[in-house]
Amino acid sequence: MSRVLVTGSAGRLGRSVVTTLAAAGHEVIGVDNAPGTPVEAAAVLPADLTDTGQAFEVIARFRPESVIHLAAIATPFSRPESVIYKVNTQLAFNICEASVALGVESVVVASSPTVIGYGAPRGWAPSYLPIDEDHPVRPWNAYNLSKVAAEQTMKAFAEAGTTKLAAIRPCFVIPPEEWAGAPTQSGHTVTERLDRPELGGVSLFNYVDSRDASDMVAVLVEALPDLPNGEVFFAGATDALARKPLAELLPQVVPGTEPFAAGLTGTAPAFSTTKAERLLGWQAKRSWRTELKES
After folding, report:
1. What is the pLDDT of residues 129-155, one digit of tens each?
2. What is the C-alpha to C-alpha distance for residues 267 and 282, in angstroms, rounded to an integer?
3. What ranges in 48-113 are assigned the alpha helix state H?
């Protein structure tokens, strides 16, 4: 197949991406300063990709056909705001610049649904539901602002050369161990998020199994040559991480959603993946109803 370089290869999503791409026959190179990159990676290199020289050196050393850029400070407010913005934007710029300059064929950059702006302290309401890629972005903290910048960086480099680029917005990523009770990135378990709607409600009950998101990455790598350059895709489950319909729950936890939530009947999620279904033929296969191991 091809050589694919994955930054953030030891992360919640990165681990599944490495495993999925390797199973598809790709030679996968992991780049991460933290331990935990799966053994399926052909090589793992620790590197500070916020350093432009190191980013170029890594790409030049391995000469991948594709780069999947997942490395980031992934949790809002986990570091000083200035650090989160500086690190995440520098990572995205360096990887895109080095990839385009060195002739990488395709690049996928990880963004986030948080660019929509939910959870803003002065209040937030959607323009419509379900939310798709055309919905306005309203960043209000360093993390989601850095992800808007990463998307715009990707689009700028899509205009600058022959490399094909795209961004994905993975919903709240849940790897297999978290279905079995390990804490999620918010510190709560999946069961706690289901039992306490105020926990999942701030993010509109969005989620995606890490393996489903990784399947999208694999499909996107193959499809990029035939797609318009600079596309953005949501990656989410086909249902909400909620025990009750969002038509009932959303107005309770997110004031201002009343006019739109009524259309989210049954198990329907607040985020649409219609674009990925249409352009990539991708749809999430896993649900909390099939994966969660409740005690």
Report:
1. 999 999 999 999 999 999 999 999 999
2. 19
3. 52-62, 81-101
